[in-house]
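TA notes, week 10

Several of you asked for a full example with nothing omitted. So below is the full record: structure tokens for the whole chain, then the designed sequence directly under it. When grading your own attempts, check the secondary structure regions first.
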């Protein structure tokens, strides 16, 4: 079975194609969104999703969130001591655990374990990040048949609502970690992405940081939080910030509060204060919009709709910024949290050639320029090195294959070396280095030997490079050389085996585990009498669990949930 997955920075979701339409699959708690959070204890016990997020407050050293931001880097997160190698997980390992949980949800619903997936990625994900995402799928036992850009998936979900023609519309996707903009048109069954632009490092997380940076000196003038371990401090501030920020979506002021030891540190933040704290972030929303429109030569006034996607577009400050930018109100007709996963399932149906979508075609673009590093004669007998020579220009429709020819610069040069870059800057140091390729050339006078460099960018956004030296017939093929980046079969196998050794709660216990982790988190969120009461309720629930009597457990759980709901409805914290 082929499924569609939105692997988000904050939340992930999975959808399948059934009876001619895309449907979301609920997780074991009945939610369509599974927090992209993983918690692993020293003994290898693992939690994924909602309970993992609750454990962020109580066990910050064991818990990871927002790891999508590290995708495709060598960075690791140490969790749970020495359970897995040294307990160091790459973003792709943690993502694999989330993907595995989503696949299990599909299996629970349909009785069939999915083996293939379409996974969404931010349009601005570079080659390394895309390959890491694909490996995450492999580690979870899923063959990633296609990677699809998130705004393109959202555009499918929006555009295929009635399958009619649509004038150009703009998808504005601001999630937890990334911002993507796409201009899309639908004509005669062809969904055509005209241009994409974005910012890989802009999302709700950044608004949390901005808010925390403003509030921290107010609640903690004596710098007591600085004495905490960084992971603990960040977890406390992040939670306080997100709670406050969400409250500001429906109220003109909200409390920013956290519990430190036996004390509650709190301040009230007004909407105006919040808006000024995130002013620099709001300004960064403009550039990608302008660039995408310019690249496809469409004027903002020609757009039929501005389609909002991503949880962070719920923030009134963001909506106001969008309204100012376009001079009109955006369209909120697709569900901002569900559109990407639904679009992924539609893409899965397209890949699987489902009859219901027979007449639909989709074309996407490469959202950034790809090229090589070159040196140029400066006209005064010198060489200027480190320049970027584009091979595939941004917003070229994909799949695409382009070739450039480059010659030697020195006499008797033995090799031609190419740094491979992505970006728009004239000098390569302003761009992202993706890899490096070297090819031997026959020694001749400068400029007499040349190499043909071909870049091929496929519909998943994966890059392949072929270099050919006609003079010698030597060829090289590169899928990015970095060793770090290309773990061998064996390493992947051993990582998969290590992940498989983690212990997961049996599915039937998931509800109890989630309630217990939530109660423990609530305990830490409160002080005084309320805290004591929560402690007592936890003891009662633990006692019921010990009896192993399903009726008593269910009763105790319902009671605990009702009490926690009551405590948590009082206000933030
Ligand atoms: N009601 C709300 N008010 C304010 N912010 C919200 C609200 N609901 C969700 N968010 C924010 O939306 C963000 C998550 O959005 P979403 O689930 O679309 O992101 P994601 O898909 O996980 O991330 P990405 O697409 O960047 O990888 C979080 O920062 C969250 O705080
Ligand atoms: Mg998203």
């Amino acid at each position: 079975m082929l499924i569609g997955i939105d692997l988000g920075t904050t939340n992930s979701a999975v959808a399948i194609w059934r009876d001619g339409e895309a449907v979301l699959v609920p997780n074991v708690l009945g939610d369509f969104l599974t927090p992209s959070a993983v918690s692993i204890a020293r003994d290898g016990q693992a939690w994924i999703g909602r309970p993992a997020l609750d454990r962020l407050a109580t066990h910050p050293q064991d818990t990871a969130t927002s790891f999508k931001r590290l995708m495709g880097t060598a960075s690791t997160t140490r969790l749970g001591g020495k359970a897995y190698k040294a307990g160091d997980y790459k973003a792709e390992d943690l993502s694999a655990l989330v993907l595995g949980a989503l696949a299990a949800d599909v299996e629970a619903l349909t009785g069939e374990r999915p083996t293939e997936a379409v996974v969404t990625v931010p349009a601005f994900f570079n080659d390394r990040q895309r390959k890491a995402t694909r490996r995450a799928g492999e580690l979870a036992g899923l063959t990633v048949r296609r990677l699809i850009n998130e705004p393109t998936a959202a555009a499918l979900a929006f555009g295929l609502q009635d399958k009619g023609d649509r004038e150009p519309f703009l998808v504005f996707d601001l999630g937890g970690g990334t911002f993507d903009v796409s201009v899309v048109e639908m004509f005669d069954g062809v969904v055509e992405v005209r241009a994409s632009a974005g910012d890989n490092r802009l999302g709700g997380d950044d608004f949390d940081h901005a808010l925390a940076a403003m509030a921290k000196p107010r609640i903690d003038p004596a710098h007591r939080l600085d004495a905490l371990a960084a992971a603990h401090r960040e977890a406390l501030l992040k939670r306080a910030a997100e709670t406050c920020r969400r409250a500001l979506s429906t109220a003109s002021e909200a409390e920013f509060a956290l519990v430190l030891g036996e004390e509650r540190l709190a301040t009230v933040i007004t909407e105006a204060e919040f808006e000024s704290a995130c002013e620099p972030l709001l300004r960064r929303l403009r550039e990608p919009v302008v660039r995408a429109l310019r690249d496809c030569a469409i004027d903002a006034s020609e757009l039929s709709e501005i389609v909002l996607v991503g949880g962070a577009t719920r923030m009134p400050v963001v909506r106001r910024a969008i309204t100012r930018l376009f001079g009109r109100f955006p369209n909120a007709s697709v569900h901002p949290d569900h559109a990407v996963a639904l679009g992924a399932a539609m893409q899965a149906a397209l890949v699987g050639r489902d009859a219901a979508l027979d007449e639909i075609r989709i074309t996407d673009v490469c959202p950034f320029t790809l090229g090589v590093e070159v040196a140029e004669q400066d006209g005064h007998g010198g060489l200027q090195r480190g320049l970027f020579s584009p091979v595939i220009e941004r917003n070229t429709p994909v799949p695409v294959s382009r070739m450039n020819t480059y010659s030697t610069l020195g006499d008797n040069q033995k090799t031609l070396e190419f740094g491979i870059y992505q970006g728009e800057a004239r000098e390569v140091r302003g761009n992202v280095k993706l890899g490096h390729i070297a090819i031997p050339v026959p020694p001749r006078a400068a400029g007499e030997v040349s190499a043909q460099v071909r870049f091929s960018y496929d519909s998943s956004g994966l890059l392949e490079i072929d270099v050919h030296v006609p003079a010698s017939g030597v060829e090289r093929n590169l899928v990015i050389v970095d060793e770090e980046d290309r773990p061998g079969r064996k390493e992947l196998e051993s990582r998969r085996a290590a992940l498989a050794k983690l212990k997961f709660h049996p599915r039937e216990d998931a509800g109890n585990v989630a309630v217990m982790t939530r109660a423990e988190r609530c305990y830490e969120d409160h002080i005084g009498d309320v805290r004591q009461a929560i402690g007592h309720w936890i003891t009662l629930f633990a006692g019921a669990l010990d009896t192993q009597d399903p009726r008593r457990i269910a009763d105790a759980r319902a009671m605990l949930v009702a009490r926690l709901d009551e405590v948590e409805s009082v206000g933030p914290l």
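The first strand starts at residue 2 and ends at 7. Use that as a sanity check on your answer.
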